[in-house]
Design a protein that fits this description.
alpha+beta, three-stranded antiparallel beta sheet
């Protein structure tokens, strides 16, 4: 048992899983292919072109994936920010779960 725990701790360290804030799961929106975790940040002004070639500009803070304007832009592309708030910052999905 001690060897298994040591191996698990080694795996957590190797994959950067020590500070996830959410327990890993064998069955999840990730395994269904309906979620992506992505670290988003920018400096200055963020300019994005939507599906209709309309230019969208985000000047507000924070300049990362927690930006409320970015959440609205994500919806245009069918990607919804995790509705659980800061407990899983990089988590975006097809339905907010």
């Amino acid at each position: 048992m001690a060897e298994s725990l040591a191996a698990a701790a080694e795996m957590m360290a190797a994959f950067g899983m020590a500070n996830l804030n959410v327990a890993p799961s064998l069955r999840s929106r990730h395994t269904e292919g309906k979620v992506i975790d992505m670290a988003i940040s920018w400096s200055g002004v963020l300019i994005i072109e939507d599906n209709n070639k309309k230019t969208l500009t985000i000047r507000s803070f924070p300049k990362d994936g927690m930006n409320k304007e970015l959440h609205e832009v994500g919806k245009i592309f069918g990607v919804i920010k995790y509705r659980g708030g800061i407990s899983d910052k990089p988590h975006w999905s097809s339905d907010g779960r």
